């Protein structure tokens, strides 16, 4: 590819990003102008009263974010498309709004489908699109971001290392939110759990594994939080919905990780510092990319916890040097112990 070709392609992608962003912001504003005020009318059906949050979710926050901040920052990148990665990274927390919106969407859809109340407004506006189609826009938008960022990555030249890294990181932020919305929905389907999941840090990922413990083998849906790994068993309700019955959980601060075990390349192992050697759990993933994603996330969690523990120990040691003068090696040993990641043959 010539430099001219790369520049032209990046400019084309940037123009599409800006054009579709402007249309998206207008669509969100259209909903807020024409549909949200309907719920304040006297003729609102009784079961729609007080349901603004259920129907529209955090749409107003999304509109404020895009209208007041993100659209303007994208426009500032019009002539320098490779700067766009920074815009996404600068607002990575705001993109968390999309996972929450996606989580709420099924409840919104179910409520709208029960009524013709909003359909009358559509006819009055002579609009070919109904409210459900407009409320799908945020879900479509974040998928569009993922597509456009991938296209930009494909056009980055080898000399544009830092810009490529920024766009790659931005694409990962968007991919996480796409997955996280589904993860939050699945988390809502956990049953009979006596653990407060809101206190376990962020839900990082969830997948199905064949779990082996001693001589037992079972299929489990496993949830990885920042502070907890949780095992559930999938079941169907009488209506055919999937639910996940709580089986057991372990604090991530109590476990260690072995990246690979067995010959399949699909298994990893979690073990416990304060239990017998045979008390280990082997998790077999369906695909290698799932296994690699889980071990990478677990490694990151364990490393962060080990560094935190080391910092707390050194702080305590500095406060009571006379009582514990020679403990500096203990935290390092703990880091090495918990980060044992050798492969078992």
UniProtKB/TrEMBL annotation:
Gene Ontology molecular function, alphabetical: guanyl-nucleotide exchange factor activity
Protein's name according to its UniProt entry: Uncharacterized protein
Organism: Pygocentrus nattereri
Annotated ranges, domain DH: 9-184
Transmembrane segments: none
All residue ranges annotated as the PH domain in the record: 196-303
A Pfam match: RhoGEF
InterPro entries the UniProt entry points to: DBL_dom_sf, DH_dom, PH-like_dom_sf, PH_domain, Rho_GEF_signaling-related, SOS1_NGEF_PH
Species classification: Eukaryota, Metazoa, Chordata, Craniata, Vertebrata
Lineage: superkingdom: Eukaryota
């Amino acid at each position: 590819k010539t430099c001219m070709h790369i520049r032209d392609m990046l400019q084309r992608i940037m123009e599409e990003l800006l054009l579709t962003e402007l249309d998206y912001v207008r669509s969100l504003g259209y909903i807020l102008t024409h549909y949200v005020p309907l719920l304040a009318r006297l003729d609102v059906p009784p079961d729609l009263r007080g349901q603004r949050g259920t129907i529209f979710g955090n749409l107003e926050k999304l509109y404020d974010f895009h209208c007041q901040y993100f659209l303007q920052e994208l426009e500032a990148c019009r002539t320098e498309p490779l700067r766009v990665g920074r815009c996404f990274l600068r607002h990575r927390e705001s993109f968390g709004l999309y996972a929450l919106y996606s989580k709420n969407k099924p409840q919104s859809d179910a409520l709208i489908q029960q009524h013709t109340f909003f359909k009358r407004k559509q006819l009055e506006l002579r609009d070919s699109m109904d409210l459900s189609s407009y409320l799908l826009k945020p879900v479509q938008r974040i998928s569009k971001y993922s597509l456009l960022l991938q296209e930009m990555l494909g056009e980055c030249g080898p000399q544009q290392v830092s810009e490529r890294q920024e766009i790659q990181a931005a694409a990962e932020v968007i991919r996480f939110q796409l997955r996280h919305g589904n993860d939050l929905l699945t988390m809502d389907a956990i049953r009979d759990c006596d653990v407060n999941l809101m206190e376990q840090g962020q839900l990082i990922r969830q997948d199905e594994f064949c779990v082996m413990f001693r001589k037992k083998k079972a299929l489990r849906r496993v949830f990885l939080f920042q502070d907890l790994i949780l095992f559930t068993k999938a079941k169907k309700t009488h209506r055919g919905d999937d639910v996940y019955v709580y089986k057991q959980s372990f604090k991530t601060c109590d476990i260690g990780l072995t990246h690979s075990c067995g010959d399949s390349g699909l298994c990893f192992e979690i073990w416990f510092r304060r239990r017998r050697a045979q008390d280990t759990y082997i998790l077999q993933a369906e695909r290698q990319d799932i296994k690699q994603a889980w071990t990478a996330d677990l490694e990151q969690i364990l490393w962060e916890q080990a560094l935190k523990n080391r910092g707390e120990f050194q702080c305590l040691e500095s406060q009571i040097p006379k009582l514990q003068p020679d403990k500096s090696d203990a935290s390092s040993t703990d880091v090495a112990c918990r980060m044992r990641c050798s492969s078992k043959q």
